[in-house]
Amino acid sequence: ANSNTQGIAGGDSNITINDSAIGGNGGELNSVYLFNSYFNSIGGYGANASSKAFGSNTGAQAVTVSSSAVGGNGGQGSGYGNQGGNGGSANASATGVSFSGNVTLAASQTGGNGGDGVNGANGGNGANSILKNAVQGTTSGGLSLSQTAVGGAAG
Hints:
This protein is mostly beta strands. It is built from no helices and twelve strands. Strands 1-5-8-11 form a four-stranded parallel sheet, with no helix packed on it. The chain has a four-stranded parallel sheet with strand order 2-6-9-12, with no helix packed on it. Strand 3 and strand 4 form a beta hairpin. The two termini are 22 Å apart. The relative contact order is 0.23.
């Protein structure tokens, strides 16, 4: 899932931008008994998610921008030699600009959890989550920056 939101005011207006993206979960197939045999499966991978938000004005009013991304969870794997699907990655960023208004920016991302492993299968890997300078702002007024990264749990 990818999402990108922009808001630009040419004058002295408040700007509030909220953007989010959520990746889908990986599929799973439980053991199936067919033709006198059990068929096992590898869990599907969780989908990646990317959220990008931008807001600006040219006046003295506030600019508030938030971005949130959540990776999908891996599907369940079943049977020896198989594994649950890996969690999807997440990437979030927020940018805001104001001539002299307060600028408040927040970015949050959460990696997907790994899928469970059953009937001898291994669990999937949770996705890492690393944020570095994911929020950027410019103003002659007040500037507030927040970023949060949470990794996914293993299955």
